[in-house]
Fold this sequence. Notes:
Elements: E1 2-7, H1 17-28, E2 32-37, E3 54-57, H2 62-73, E4 78-79, H3 82-89, H4 91-100, E5 108-111, H5 118-121, E6 126-130, E7 140-142, H6 145-150, E8 158-162, E9 170-176, E10 179-185, E11 197-199, H7 203-216, E12 220-228, E13 231-239, H8 249-261, E14 271-274, E15 277-280
Parallel strand pairs: 1-2, 1-3, 3-4
Antiparallel strand pairs: 5-8, 6-7, 6-8, 9-10, 9-12, 10-11, 12-13, 14-15
Amino acid sequence: MRIHFMIARRVPDVPSPLLAAIYDRLRRRGFDVDATIAEEEVRLLSGIEPEHDLYVLKSHTELSLSLAGVLHARGARIVNPYPASAVVQNKFIATRLLADADLPTPRTWVVGDTSVFDEMLRRRPLVVKPYMGYRGRGVCVVRDVDSLDESACAQPPALVEQYIPGPGEDLKLYVVGDEVFAVRKPFTAMSYSVPGRPVPVDEDVREIALRAGRALGLGIYGLDVIESPDGPVIVDANYFPGYKGVPDATERIADYIEAYALEEVELVPPLATVGSVALVAG
């Protein structure tokens, strides 16, 4: 069976140790594995057809996600599936789906013009995020109107969340199938690139993580959680994170991809409800 990984450019331009180890494990199990970076190719759009038994979407770029959508429309099997990946990349949709599943999320606003939030910003700190984003890019805490006006992260359309106080570190949850792992680390613009400190996962947090995956239709994913005085709150979700700090991550991910390739695992597309009508994404 042929497995193709859709990956992102790395800076510096060196192979991902995580992916290299996953490729090696899958090849030793008899799979033909290759990978491409979408930004380094020129392809005729009408000529794009599924050529592999399974695609693995690791890149979060708009181009990679769009190409995954083309492949999905042509019948390709992708993990995570394109509809789920597209949903989780759009923070408006993902946050609403999590809230509709009765999962703990911050109070959230959709903003097309940041000037309308002047009065609210005088009363409370908020978190401003790009509505399409990954790796924490463009996320900032806004404590007053002046900092909003001067902030490069406040470009509309934006997702604006109630600021949730926490212990000073994010709880990063990493999920592979039904296994949940956790690390703690401070949030910074580069925190995605460094390992966290592994910590135990209590049963309530594990249940929240697995419910989030079901709501979003994901099997390999990460969640950012703030441990607030009122309990854990999900503040972000992403498909196929880096799993830094997770023990034996490569073996677990390789196992999951193998099972998916052999159709021993299937994911249910995310559901959105409008009135009394359920809509299946994709």
